[in-house]
Amino acid sequence: MTAPDPGAWSDWPAPAKLNLFLRIVGRRPDGYHRLQTVFQLLDWGDTVRLRLRDDGAVRRAGDGGYGVAEADDLVVRAARLLQKEAKIGQGAEIEVVKRIPLGGGFGGGSSDAATVLVVLNHLWRAGLDEDRLAALGLQLGADVPVFVRGRSAWAEGVGEELTPLSLPPAAYLLVDPGVSVPTAELFQTPDLTRDAAPATIADFVSGSELGNAFEPVLRRRSEAVEAALQALSQLGPAALTGTGGGCFARFGARADAEAARSRLPPGLRAWVAEGVAVSPLHRALPPR
Question: Are 177 and 268 in contact (CB under 8 A)?
Fold first, then answer.
């Protein structure tokens, strides 16, 4: 691949995800919870804009628009982590065009960080393979590796043990109740079920009702989440995604999801997206 002019911006997808179910099956000796989930990648999400620099500096363009200090922003941390790991002398400017709601469980911050890792690995010619990039991503967050690898997947461990999974075509109606949920706080909730019986891929494929461990907790804590799930359940099977307030319903075709969206109560932020087997980011990358 020919690296772009250092003064030129390039735009890259950072797709959202859904957790089609999420259960906690125990806790590791280090205190982290052991999870099981299925990550469904979507054809909708943020856009990460990158411009190379020759002076080694990593900078965020603008304030990001999401209230996170530059030094704490996952995209900046991702670039600096890769820079250090691969001993890169070049720098980068980063701008994120946000569409994925913050704290909704749709994976926006993790996906943005993964896009930075994957794309700068190419643009800087860092030469790290997918396993090393995924390991770097795990230092930033448990959801980052699935975006680095770019395949919808069955996940275990803290979410980093991934098995690519072929999922049937589907369109999803996504709803953001406007509730940003701190993940760490949710994991400390006393009434969270932490010892569910482990499921198998066969259980998921068979259509067993596996649920989301955080859904009953959030229904009790947030009237907005309860109302969004109630509204969605009138249109199709509704569920919570991840550990945020975001909800979704699955449909067989995009037209059905769009029709359902038109029947939502006024005031709910909603989008329609389709599930993908391969991340839009990985489709946008040049062939190796």
Answer: yes
Computed on alpha carbons and rounded to an integer, the radius of gyration of the chain in Å comes to 19
Phi-psi region of 157 (alpha: psi -120 to 50; beta: other; left: phi over 0): left
Say which of 17, 43, 112, 176 is annotated catalytic.
Answer: 17
Length of the chain: 288
17 catalytic residue (yes or no): yes
Neighbours of 160 (CB within 10 A): 20
Q: Which residues pair with 12 in a beta bridge?
A: 48
Known catalytic residue at 143? yes
DSSP string, 39-61: EEEEEEEEEEEEEEESS--EEES
CA atoms within 13 A on the CB side of 219: 16
Work out the angle at residue 167's Cα, subtended by the Cα atoms of residues 162 and 173, and round it to the nearest 5 degrees: 105
**Given the residues 43, 143, 176, 256, the one annotated as active site:** 143
pLDDT of amino acid 3? 46
DSSP 8-state assignment for residue 278: B
Residue 6: pLDDT over 60: no
Average pLDDT, integer, range 205-226: 89
138, 160 contact by CB (below 8 A): yes
**DSSP string across 116-132:** HHHHHHHHTT----HHH
Residue type, position 244, single letter: G
What pLDDT, in 10s, does the model give residues 257-281? 999 999 999 989 999 999 999 999 9
pTM comes to: 0.94
